[in-house]
Amino acid sequence: MKRILCFSLLLTVVLVSCSRKLHTPASKTPVIQGSKDSKPDKPVVVIIPEEPKPVAPVPAPREVTAFSEPLTVIDASGNIITSRSKLPPEIGAKIDYRRIARSFTPGQKKNLIYRFQLLPPRVLYVPENLAITSVRGTYVIFKKKFWYWKQADGLFHLDKTYYQ
């Protein structure tokens, strides 16, 4: 009986001590050091010199577009986002938009939104430096969730396990 009483008393003390505030809130008025009779020092005026206005850099002419991240070609609704002219010529010549521009079905959309809280794009263009090669093929992981596999047309298509 003594053990139960001591344990409950100890538990009560711990709970009460943890629930109290340890720090008083800081006041928003400044605290002046010194006695009450002393006058505060005169305010200090700081003069900041004006900085010269920066000169806008002249952009270099762009001949070859280098991609640093995957580029969406077909979005989740089947809309064409990137035209052939914006893709490298060897990829643009192989693309058949009639075949790849398809939307998810309503059931697939509902499933993807429920599982991942977003609809991933169906088809991506990924530069070779971002792609990963394995025994099964070349792939890329988009937004740390979705796996895309390289197809014969040179584009990366969403893995079918996400929507079938």
Please characterize this protein's 3D structure.
The chain is of the alpha+beta class. It has a domain at 71-162. The chain is built from four helices and six strands; from the N terminus they run αβαααβββββ. It has helices at residues 2-19, 89-92, 97-100, 106-116, and strands spanning 71-74, 123-125, 132-133, 138-142, 146-150, 156-158. Strands 1-2-6-5-4-3 form a six-stranded antiparallel beta sheet, with no helix packed on it. The longest helix is centred in the N-terminal third of the chain and has 18 residues, at 2-19. It is flat and about 80 Å long.
Key phrases:
6-stranded antiparallel sheet; 164 residues; alpha+beta; 6 strands
